[in-house]
Amino acid sequence: MPKKRKNCGFLKLPKPLNPIIGSALIIALILFGLTIPVSAKQLSFHRVGAKLSYVWQTGGNQPQQATFDLQQYPRNLSFFTAFRTHDALAFIARGMQELAKKQDPKKAIIDITAYATRLSWKIRTRSQSERQDLNQQLNSIYRKRYAEYLADHRMRLLKMPSGESGIIPDHPKLAQESAPYLEDFATYFFPKTTQPNSNAKLKKQLNALLAFIQSIPYNRLQTKGQYRGAGFMTPIQVLRNNMGDCDSKATLLAAILLKAQPKLKTAFVYIPGHAFLAIQLGANGDEQTIHIKQQPWLVLDPTGPAIMPVGKVSQGTLRYIKSHYFKTLPVNQKTVQ
To answer: What is the model's pTM?
Structure first.
């Protein structure tokens, strides 16, 4: 596995809860990148209500300007709450307490204790088979409630090739939920036409969208509690607050692509401390791809401010790709590793 490089910032990845003992440990995974002199630069940003006005410039090209209308979106897309171990354990414990209350105290007593970072239980009964059965039920409730908590809070477990796992925002789900409200962005970068789109034209449109997102100011989002995200912003937040980190910008890109190009197969790609996208589209000789299910997928990295057109990534990212050390999650299809 390539050596990690410190450069861009941190992506905090809480460890998943253990079936018996929950953990509040945080793994600080390091972001990295390559400084490139040509960058996308935002010259101005103004927000008046739902209208967002931008002026941005790509390298030495002429500045571009556009005003977009955000569609009326639900409130839950305007914030993201970070994973809280104590809240998750309390939610799980409530479900287990329901089973405990149903027991005849003359036959079995279940004591459940929730601590700040762990959850434990003790079963008191004279029957060994009853103890085993109750323990199986408690473990089943634990797993079910844990999955419900993650789903309700738009989170999911991610397991890397090394076996290391953690809790991350459910980026595909957040992209899918945000897509319907990004009509203006979709039609601006991918104008509707009756003519079939060639790969060359589609890549040109993708590069324009990439440059726009790369020009949005990069922010590591490390301050806990700020914007209620502590490390992630929804696509709506990125646009309204005019800032974002790698996975926040990748989710914005995925959401716009879902709205503009719903048939274009898209996936999130994860390496230690970094997230970007890949699409199933034919590559030219100098465009970087990753292989998903033995098929080449083009990479898209909207992080910025360095200009990374379709098929281009930093040298740090490239080392992980070449060593096949990455994990993918589908956005709009199931056949992803």
So the answer is: 0.85
